[in-house]
Description:
Layout: H1 13-27, H2 35-65, H3 78-109, E1 113-114, H4 122-136, E2 141-145, E3 159-167, E4 176-183, E5 190-193, E6 197-200, H5 201-207, H6 209-212, E7 216-228, H7 242-253, E8 258-264, H8 269-279, E9 286-289, H9 299-302, H10 329-335, E10 338-342, H11 348-359, E11 363-370, H12 378-388, E12 392-397, H13 405-418, E13 421-423, E14 430-431, E15 435-441, E16 447-454, E17 466-473, H14 476-490, E18 502-504, H15 508-521, E19 527-532, H16 538-549, E20 553-558, E21 575-580, E22 585-586, E23 590-593, E24 601-604, H17 610-614, E25 616-623, H18 626-641, E26 646-649, E27 655-657, H19 668-685, H20 689-702
Parallel strand pairs: 1-6, 8-9, 11-12, 12-13, 14-25, 17-22, 19-20, 20-21
Antiparallel strand pairs: 2-4, 3-4, 3-7, 5-6, 7-8, 10-17, 11-15, 15-16, 16-17, 18-25, 19-23, 21-26, 23-24, 24-25, 26-27
Helix pairs in contact: 1-2, 1-3, 2-3, 11-12, 12-13, 15-16, 19-20
Amino acid sequence: xxxxxxxxxxxxxxxxxxxxxxxxxxxxxxxxxxxxxxxxxxxxxxxxxxxxxxxxxxxxxxxxxxxxxxxxxxxxxxxxxxxxxxxxxxxxxxxxxxxxxxxxxxxxxxxxxxxxxxxxxxxxxxxxxxxxxxxxxxxxxxxxxxxxxxxxxxxxxxxxxxxxxxxxxxxxxxxxxxxxxxxxxxxxxxxxxxxxxxxxxxxxxxxxxxxxxxxxxxxxxxxxxxxxxxxxxxxxxxxxxxxxxxxxxxxxxxxxxxxxxxxxxxxxxxxxxxxxxxxxxxxxxxxxxxxxxxxxxxxxxxxxxxxxxxxxxxxxxxxxxxxxxxxxxxxxxxxxxxxxxxxxxxxxxxxxxxxxxxxxxxxxxxxxxxxxxxxxxxxxxxxxxxxxxxxxxxxxxxxxxxxxxxxxxxxxxxxxxxxxxxxxxxxxxxxxxxxxxxxxxxxxxxxxxxxxxxxxxxxxxxxxxxxxxxxxxxxxxxxxxxxxxxxxxxxxxxxxxxxxxxxxxxxxxxxxxxxxxxxxxxxxxxxxxxxxxxxxxxxxxxxxxxxxxxxxxxxxxxxxxxxxxxxxxxxxxxxxxxxxxxxxxxxxxxxxxxxxxxxxxxxxxxxxxxxxxxxxxxxxxxxxxxxxxxxxxxxxxxxxxxxxxxxxxxxxxxxxxxxxxxxxxxxxxxxxxxxxxxxxxxxxxxxxxxxxxxxxxxxxxxx
Length: 703
């Protein structure tokens, strides 16, 4: 009998994440992707890595300092993990630089340039000089560091130029002075000189150091960027005013311990010693680069509309049957449950539901969870309008949504000022569920409930680039559970359970393990297909291993982390794991269990990770409508057949790109775009919505 708890059966969470980011980086090398799209993937890679160091590496450092020995089922110590992370990133550094150099070189062939000041023509150098005096000099902060000028506070991810100077009036070579020039975030990362040339701003600043420090000669300089621990621990029990404690926590984040230093390669050793004598960063967390720092800011160049020919053609999300008419959204949902798949299908019906509810005199109440919303959120504005109209509005605003805290604080205050009841979740738990409930009074005086459940956030911006499932219903069983869920969030409750929906931290994990165990009973007739962002929970993995040993065929589509090791003889040879990386961020959680009753298909806000299953308020929603089940199943099948964007996880923990040397290349993103376009065109020709959809579904199956 195999020991399913054996540490060798589990892949390390942090290293699995790093391999996900490597798959993102690999997109930047693909010649079949337009150049600015490749540059975008480089920006995404860098931004991801910033967050990884701020949160995961910082956390491992704290665990190591606290003397923690083991942190996961793989039994690696924090020190083991830190060593492997540093070695992995050190080996990948040249890959990043190579990608950047290749893309920059190919962009030059398209008449788009990224050049340092020293490479500019006299005319562009003159433009850069003018920009320096008009826009840079007034806002930069020159800082001397000596006995009377202490080393300054450096904010997380702040960007500066360290300088080594010499008094022009002295002949002594050793009489050096040290300082820095802080480059504030109000300045763009690149100065656009002319129409086609981007100049890293630090190279312009370097050119004018001697004018910033008059009377001194520049001996050496080095651009650098610091990363701090950005993980906040909020002691909620001690906070009478949770909003106030969150604001204090955000300020403390700026003062977290230094965890990483990025600096120009071949920097003057004295400059590096000057910086690190104050920051005390472990030498293996100092990364030197020959390319510009802060590649996350490449979005500035990606967004240049003059070079839209170097990006993928824009895809406009489609409003399709049954939401394609001017009929009230309530009447549409009255007829049938509806399932949308964003971004191929528009997010607009979700917005319409809340907007229409805010204006409808028959609507008496709107309840919503808000985790990550955009800065100019039409949904939140509709809730504010509803509250101003005297409707009962309850908004569960998760102030602990990492890196969206400030935006959520802003909206929470605005909602409270409008008279909405704002709930900040439950002590000790994040509210990550995506649910909206509208209560409407019908002609006969009875109340009718309209619900929306999603796998993604109520965020119109991310809904254009994240793939997510979106479910509308007015069925009574969902109404009862959604009301109970909001009562749990806003009141005191113990031991409350939902009947149709499943809720974490009490119900989703046992439900999932039960569904997996049920398939195991069917042996070779069992079938599981699941799609999520990450798979980490060891109890769930053990259940999957056991089902595999019983002959159940299991396919897992996990975009990011996967701690399950597939293809191990006697344990997981019936399990296949793939990751899809492409134009859209795969964000949907969809679960299919062939022999489950009363339904085979579920969507959820929760990944199969301990934090989602044990430390968050999440929802898993059963889909009973056979047509909607089929729609989700076909999406899963399409992604399993994808041979253009897919990576396969091998038993050694490495990912390999899926072989696309087949007769037909299948890119699930473009197939779904084409499918939605066909429905849209068909409905224009035939106003009978069900005929249009029937035709398009036939075309989809053919494709």
